[in-house]
Amino acid sequence: MGRRKRTAFGDVSVTRVAFERGEARCAACRRPIGPGDGPTFVRSIGGSEPRLATLQCGRCRAMLTVHFADSEPAEA
Ligand SMILES: [Zn+2]
């Protein structure tokens, strides 16, 4: 996969583990975000685990797209 990594405003890149721990931050106001903010997980086609989630920051109402990064390299 030669997809270039783009980070637009509102995009948050974090590992799943860190997200579950609430270590991710809103891109706009830096408020901690996590499972308690009611994320909507986007399941990828053919994938077992969601790679994306969208949620709204509880403070500034920014719509955030969370990209779950692999915690370890998964090259075949
Ligand atoms: Zn915010």
Describe the model:
The protein is mostly beta strands and 76 residues long. The protein has one domain (11-69). It is built from 1 helix and 6 strands, in the order E-H-E-E-E-E-E. The strands form 2 sheets. Strands 1-6-5-4 form a 4-stranded mixed β-sheet. Strands 2-3 form a two-stranded antiparallel ribbon. Strand 2 (24-25) and strand 3 (32-33) form a beta hairpin. It is globular. The relative contact order is 0.26.
In total, how many domains does the architecture comprise? 1
Identify every distinct bound molecule in the structure, by name, code or SMILES.
zinc ion
| Number of distinct helices | 1
Instruction: From the alpha carbons, calculate the radius of gyration and give it in angstroms.
Output: 13 Å
Q: Write down the overall geometry.
A: globular
Query: Which strands sit side by side, in order, in the main sheet?
Result: 1-6-5-4
For this structure, the quaternary state is single chain
Unreliable stretches (pLDDT < 50, length at least 5) are: none
Secondary-structure element order, as H and E? EHEEEEE
Mean pLDDT: 84
Q: Main sheet? A: 4 strands, mixed
Number of strands: 6
Q: What is the distance, rounded to the nearest whole angstrom, between the alpha carbons of the first and last residues?
A: 11 Å
Which structural class fits the helix and strand makeup? mainly beta
Fraction of residues in helix: under 10%
Q: Please indicate the percent range of residues in DSSP E strands (runs of 2 or more).
A: 25-35%
